[in-house]
């Protein structure tokens, strides 16, 4: 028996087989659809590339158990339990919120004159909706906490933050205090962290949505999930609503044929919510992240939607040094020349650099246990780790190069083309 949502995601995987998050979600849906053999195949494919993927481990455990292989099921389950984050201390369950009727709309709301008045109005309003999907909370970071990436920060300030920080000037030019921004680029370069930092800069709540929070195997449920997510974000304004994996969530409708046609409703619902035809989106800032912007439906990139785009490239040498320093902060270290390590890690993403620091730390910890004393992280530890970690973005760069060279009629990838030319890829 086929299912339209599963079929749609399988179509997406055909175009992007290395998208492990989508594959893990497909595995879970297959398990829920009582197709354990297929679920196990997809889950183990994810685990071959990402051995510590907890969701894939849990799906694999359940699928193996359904197929009668208790030994494998127990093995997958133990590993998933070991890798899963510790559960928070139990607290008494909060009483269910009492439904409250919508208050009548004010006849004529006063227009605030200053940014301070806008922020005061926002801060006075209490959140009235607890999310049932995704994760809602305070950002806890700002752009100061983002290591390096000076050019990205400058572009974000010019195209996104400055208009929002100057409401008087924006109103003079008829610009609304709402916005949509797409962060795109190779994986592991900090797009999600930057989105969180933008929420911190705006003093807004950060509402993070993943693919599994939206997509559901039952027809119509995905659209309802998306509507509920936007409604929760509107009731918690000012709010940065962040969608990860936009290329999977907002696939080009022209590519959705056969089983993939079920995703058309999701794209249409997203367009309706972004336009705010029947609702108010003032104070709601919608951000998206994508590794493959060329797969996003062009309607989502039109004015009033994700009309501003910022390319987040791999960090340059100064940014790599800042990222290394950030990841080594608070750890015992001895006379490390971070500039030298930064020069030796050209082409690495922020995630690759984090892995370098983790491997160096693990080596120092092993030596500490053997010596019976704290052995600090040294230049040797980092150099050895840098040699063992291979840059993870090579495949992405090759794909992106084709779009920059042959699919750039509208100039959407000009900045990427300049970057590739400098690196002579």
UniProtKB/TrEMBL annotation:
InterPro entries according to UniProt: AAA+_ATPase, AAA_ATPase_domain, AAA_lid_3, ATPase_AAA_core, ATPase_AAA_CS, P-loop_NTPase, TPR-like_helical_dom_sf
SUPFAM superfamilies found in the cross-reference section: P-loop containing nucleoside triphosphate hydrolases, TPR-like
Keyword Coiled coil: yes
One Pfam match: AAA
Keywords: ATP-binding, Coiled coil, Nucleotide-binding
Molecular functions (GO terms): ATP binding; ATP hydrolysis activity
AAA+ ATPase domain location: 177-316
PANTHER family noted in UniProt: AAA-FAMILY ATPASE, NUCLEAR VALOSIN-CONTAINING PROTEIN-LIKE
Family note: Belongs to the AAA ATPase family.
Protein name from the UniProt record: ATPase family associated with various cellular activities (AAA)
Organism per entry: Promicromonospora thailandica
